[in-house]
Amino acid sequence: MTETTLLDYVELAVYPIYLICSSLISFLVIFNQRKIKKRFKIDLMITFMIIYISNFFITYFNFQLLNMYIRVGLPMSVIFLSIYIQSKITIIGLTGGIACGKSAVGNYFKDFLKLSIIDCDILSRRVVEVGKPAYNKLKERYGNKILQENGEIDRAELGKLVFNNPAIRKHVTQTTGWYIMLEILKEIYQIGFVKKENVMLLDAPILYETKYLEYICHPIIVVFLSQEQLQIERLVKRDKISEEEALKKIKSQMPISKKIEKADITICNDGTIEDMKKQVNRILPQLVQ
């Protein structure tokens, strides 16, 4: 029997971290296998084998204090779980520029394809309800100036701060982002495993800006307008604001050209509702690949 060394105890302490990291990598790779296949022409089975063999050798020759079946079996179980979940669930991402008609596209998907919608606008309101952690953090940071008389968050006032100050926008996004992600995961579980629907739509205005959402969605649809002036006019009419304020809101988001470049599918929404529906009908085969 070999003597236990300090290195053995260090490996034992590191193993949970390794398990968490390898689990996250496995989930991300498996969920993005269609993107990987499209970019690198690598099949899912090859991707799976690379992950499997890497995990096997890392765990087999390290973490010697743990039973071999535990140190090798747990990461492998995560890989198989990732494949199972990915095979059960397809999350279509929907994003685009502000006032580009993204909600109209989402509603058509809901009504025509009968898809369940995960609406991040609704979730963002839910996480800042009175008494919730994100609400308390925002109130502590910005005080009563962002509150209505009834104590609820005044979204108009908070919006002014966000659109006029990049530092505040970053802080608010970071403060609410984690809680919104938890709500998204709850919705995915409810739709995919309770309702047993294998396709759902994630409607997220800042899908690309949040960094992580694009890695759980495929395909990603970007709705845009070809002319910025048309976007300004629609935003002025919708929010009853000046053109200057509308332009500030547009400029606060990722340029639509970058979103189009990253998108799997694009919808130009310059025309009528009927024009939009025709475009959606044309892309349906791409959604079920």
Automatic annotation (TrEMBL):
Single GO biological process annotation from the record: coenzyme A biosynthetic process
Record bears the keyword Disulfide bond: no
CDD domains reported for this sequence: DPCK
GO molecular function: ATP binding; dephospho-CoA kinase activity
PROSITE patterns associated with the record: DPCK
InterPro entries for the chain: Depp_CoAkinase, P-loop_NTPase
Keywords carried by this UniProt record: ATP-binding, Kinase, Membrane, Nucleotide-binding, Transferase, Transmembrane, Transmembrane helix
Listed SUPFAM superfamilies: P-loop containing nucleoside triphosphate hydrolases
Transmembrane segments: 12-32, 44-62
Listed name of the protein: Dephospho-CoA kinase
Source organism of the structure: Tetrahymena thermophila (strain SB210)
